[in-house]
Amino acid sequence: SKDYWGSGIMPEAVKIVIKYLFNELNYDFLLCGHFSFNQQSKRVQEKCGFQPYRKLMMTTSEHTKEPIILNLLINPHKNITLEFSHPETLIYPQNISGKHI
Description:
The protein is α+β, with helices and mostly antiparallel strands. It has one domain (2-100): Gcn5-related N-acetyltransferase (GNAT) (Aminopeptidase, 3-Layer(aba) Sandwich), CATH 3.40.630. Helices cover 25% and strands 32% of the residues. The protein is built from two helices and five strands, in the order αβαββββ. It has helices at residues 9-24, 39-47; strands at 29-35, 51-59, 65-74, 82-84, 98-100. The strands form two sheets. Strands 1-3-2 form a three-stranded antiparallel beta sheet, with helices on one face. A two-stranded parallel ribbon has the order 4-5. It is flat, with a radius of gyration of 15 Å. It starts with 8 loop residues before the first helix and ends with a strand. 11% of the residues are buried.
């Protein structure tokens, strides 16, 4: 409901899920994304620590092509090394380490 927009409920809920996935299920990393025009989703993901990773085009259910941003969050309790392919789609920040393959 729009009545709850901007109240911080989504970041709070997402952070609980992240904690469970990293601490209980031992995930190495998480990916999520948003359409480039969806600023609310972008903000939730930023507040939860996700970093921009790749920009891609997605075909929607309405058969239109829309740019999406994939965001990455690495489990801080693990020593993860990334190997990147398709560097033309990368938009990762400098603090995400990895090498191109």
